[in-house]
Design brief:
Elements lengths: L1 H22 L4 H18 L6 H10 L8 H19 L7 H12 L36 H15 L6 H15 L6 H15 L10 H7 L1 H14 L2 H40 L6 H10 L2 E3 H8 L3 H13 L4 E2 L8 E3 L1 H4 L10 H7 L2
Antiparallel strand pairs: 1-3, 2-3
Helix pairs in contact: 1-11, 2-4, 2-9, 2-12, 3-4, 4-5, 4-8, 5-8, 6-7, 7-8, 7-11, 9-11, 10-11, 11-12, 13-14
Length: about 350
């Protein structure tokens, strides 16, 4: 009964998140920021250290002005891999083929990129602390012949519609993590799978759920729950953990979406009053909800205006207090939409008392 109750509550909160985003005039404006938040937390689980601001600056600058860390590139790759997977879902279903393609995008040009991009492992791997061997490992995934059999079974299961969508998603994630089919990047691919399944099944119209934050906040329990499945067959314990995460993160994402909607309306009014005569003012505001760190060149390219107009417009947004220049450079300046970015820094974990109240 507890599992049924959690499933119903998770479905309710996910539905509320999806409906709330659909009510927004153009929810696609801020989807990119949800993708970035998921990428940051998923990569953080693997020990990657980066910030949202660093990743956004990297996407604007590349390495043209200064060198960014390998961690920043890994997070940026996660964003691109998720975008790639969502685009490919329009043409092909989730499958071994698509999982391999996503893996190639994920590790391209990174420290793990030497480990057979987009190729399932050809030898034995294992999971354990630093220095662990095959004989002292915490867990040993299936040998290669059995790995391929398990992947065939998983691919069939991905197309199974006999279970509730969230139960199906939780089982698929745990199974891919257990098969561990790549030399590197298994955890990130497994977490990408959660988002892609939710979108493919129509549970979410847009990828607004960043479950990796919950996993990262409960990392020890996450790993112990997966090990309990492998050692003891405790699928129910894992699914309860997974569904509780869906509830917690959906509540937070819904609150963020509501705050975004309010901020967008407030700032549209501010821009309309302060820069009402500009053809490009409101389009620039909308663009900032996609990319809250921008350069003059990026605005010029996106809005189709000339360099002088783009620079003048950014200065006017700065005068309104919406943007702040963050480099101090005379050329190649970057502007930050700080009030919007701050919405994605806040996360308030649901306390046991709040959770009990919300599900009573």
């Amino acid at each position: 009964m507890e599992l049924i109750r959690l499933l119903a509550e998770a479905e309710r909160w996910l539905g509320r998140l999806d409906r709330g985003a659909s009510d927004f005039r153009n929810a696609d404006l801020f989807v990119a920021m949800y993708l970035h938040k998921e990428a940051l937390h998923s990569s953080e689980i693997e020990g990657t250290q980066s910030t949202l601001e660093e990743v956004l600056q990297f996407e604007v600058e590349g390495n043209t002005r200064r060198r960014f860390s390998a961690d920043v590139r890994e997070v940026a790759n996660y964003v691109e891999a998720l975008k790639y997977g969502l685009e490919r879902l329009e043409d092909i279903p989730l499958s071994k083929r698509l999982i391999r393609q996503i893996h190639a995008q994920l590790l391209k040009g990174t420290r793990g990129g030497s480990h057979s991009l987009g190729t399932f492992r050809s030898g034995q791997n294992w999971i354990g602390p630093d220095g662990a061997t095959l004989y002292t490992a915490t867990f040993v995934p299936p040998p290669v012949p059995y790995m391929h059999e398990a992947l065939d079974d998983l691919e069939k299961f991905l197309h199974d519609t006999s279970l509730p969508d969230l139960i199906h998603c939780g089982l698929a994630h745990a199974q891919l993590e257990t098969i561990h089919p790549f030399w590197d990047g298994n955890g990130r691919v497994g977490r990408l799978l959660i988002t892609l399944l939710l979108v493919e099944r129509g549970v979410l119209q847009r990828p607004l759920l960043y479950l990796s934050h919950y996993i990262n906040s409960h990392k020890s329990e996450y790993y112990s729950r997966l090990m309990a499945v492998r050692n003891d067959g405790d699928w129910e314990g894992w699914l309860k953990f997974f569904l509780h995460g869906i509830i917690e993160v959906s509540r937070d994402a819904t609150a963020t979406a509501d705050a975004i909607r309010d901020l967008h309306e407030q700032h549209r009014s501010l821009v309309a009053e302060g820069i009402g005569g500009s053809t490009y003012a409101l389009p620039l505001l909308d663009f900032l909800f996609e990319y809250p760190i921008v350069s003059i060149r990026l605005v010029e390219q996106r809005l189709g205006c000339n360099n002088v107009t783009a620079a003048k417009l950014l200065r006017r947004f700065e005068a309104l207090g919406l943007l702040h220049e963050i480099t101090g450079w005379k050329r190649n300046k970057l502007y930050r939409y700080g009030e919007y970015m701050d919405l994605f820094k806040s996360h308030r974990d649901v306390t046991p008392e709040e959770f009990a109240t919300s599900t009573s």
